[in-house]
Amino acid sequence: MAINVIRLPKVITKTGLSRATIYALVKAGQFPKQIKLGSRSVGWVESEIDSWLEQQLDQRG
């Protein structure tokens, strides 16, 4: 199974959250943590973002 890593602009598009909100949620442990891709770049595992979105849908009832 291939792991897709997405960068911040796509995370913003998929979630509708702002950059600041994403990083605040990561810091609070309420959003998937990013992975380091290089010395100055990070990304997120797309399946983890998708799972987070599904949890948000489940929580709304």
TrEMBL record:
It comes from the Bacteria. It holds the Pfam family Phage_AlpA. InterPro entries: AlpA (IPR010260), Prophage_regulatory_activator (IPR052931). This is Transcriptional regulator, AlpA family.
